[in-house]
């Protein structure tokens, strides 16, 4: 007996007659600050998002008139989409995690952030436990998704203290590209910035947010990173007078500059 080919579930368009142009569910929820598009897609695949009583599917299109529930709780889209985009910069200290919950009870960056009346803060990328410096948050999930998307190739600059003997040939390899366990990686730029002997500072630029990529690149050359500070993300710099554990909001013109980086 011949088996039937697998067919994916058809994409649905809800509330076509309401006069509002439907959008893909993951895009609309991201714009409303419910989460990043990647996180929303994960929730859809887990079956914890419902639209008008039905389990949502990737690619379904909705409007603000649809009844959307996340884990059984209604999401008020209309009110959230009226909120202006906000972005803040946070000076993350070493020892804080970029997650809201941690089974080990370590301090979270989210505990330091101001409360939002509508929506939630979404981290633009991550910094590992021992990395400090610039971390951005926004209430606009679509903006967060674009800023993190690999296709945008947005620069991230780090100040890094390296322990080990660093040669000119080594720096050339790091700029030209090194094969890591998950593929080729490279620094877009390397500049020496102080120190001597086996304990030197460099400023490096990467155009991706791969996990621990800065540390792994140096480790590939038998050097150890003893301190790592992110000082820039795209057009946004870590404010020089901002103490660790504190935040400040970006001005409207700075937010617009960020948006221009992600324009299609």
What does it look like?
Helix content is 21%, strand content 29%. The chain has 264 residues and is an alpha+beta fold. The chain has three domains: 23-81, RNA-binding S4 domain (Structural Genomics Hypothetical 15.5 Kd Protein In mrcA-pckA Intergenic Region, Chain A), CATH 3.10.290.10; 87-151 and 236-261, Pseudouridine synthase (2-Layer Sandwich), CATH 3.30.2350.10; 155-233, Pseudouridine synthase (2-Layer Sandwich). Helix 1 crosses helix 2 and helix 1 (25-31) packs across helix 4.
Topology at a glance:
Layout: E1 23-24, H1 25-31, H2 37-46, E2 49-51, E3 54-55, E4 61-62, E5 68-70, E6 73-75, H3 77-81, E7 87-92, E8 122-124, E9 132-138, H4 141-148, E10 156-163, H5 168-176, E11 178-180, E12 183-185, E13 189-196, E14 199-206, H6 213-219, E15 224-233, E16 236-237, E17 247-249, H7 252-261
Parallel strand pairs: 9-15
Antiparallel strand pairs: 1-4, 2-3, 2-5, 5-6, 7-9, 7-17, 8-9, 10-14, 10-15, 11-12, 13-14, 15-16
Helix pairs in contact: 1-2, 1-4
């Amino acid at each position: 007996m011949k088996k039937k080919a697998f067919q994916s579930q058809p994409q649905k368009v809800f509330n076509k007659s309401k006069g509002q142009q439907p959008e893909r569910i993951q895009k609309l929820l991201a714009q409303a600050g419910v989460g990043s598009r990647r996180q929303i897609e994960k929730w859809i695949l887990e079956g914890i998002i419902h639209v008008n009583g039905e389990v949502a599917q990737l690619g379904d299109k909705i409007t603000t008139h649809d009844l959307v529930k996340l884990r059984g709780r209604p999401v008020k889209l209309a009110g959230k989409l009226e909120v202006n985009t906000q972005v803040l910069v946070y000076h993350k200290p070493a020892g804080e995690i970029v997650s809201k919950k941690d089974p080990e009870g370590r301090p979270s960056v989210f505990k330091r952030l101001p409360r939002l009346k509508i929506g939630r803060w979404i981290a633009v990328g991550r910094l590992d436990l021992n990395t400090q410096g610039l971390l951005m948050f926004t209430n606009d999930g679509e903006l967060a998704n674009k800023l993190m998307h690999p296709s945008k190739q947005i620069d991230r600059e780090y100040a890094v203290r390296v322990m080990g003997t660093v040669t000119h040939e080594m720096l050339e390899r790091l700029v030209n590209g090194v094969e890591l366990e998950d593929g080729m990686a490279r620094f877009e730029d390397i500049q020496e910035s102080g120190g001597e002997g086996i304990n030197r500072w460099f400023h490096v630029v990467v155009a991706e947010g791969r996990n621990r990529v800065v540390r792994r690149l140096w480790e590939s050359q038998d050097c150890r990173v003893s301190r790592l500070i992110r000082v820039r993300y795209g057009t946004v710099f870590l404010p020089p007078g901002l103490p660790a554990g504190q935040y400040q909001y970006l001005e409207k013109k700075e937010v617009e500059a960020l948006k221009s980086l992600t324009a299609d």
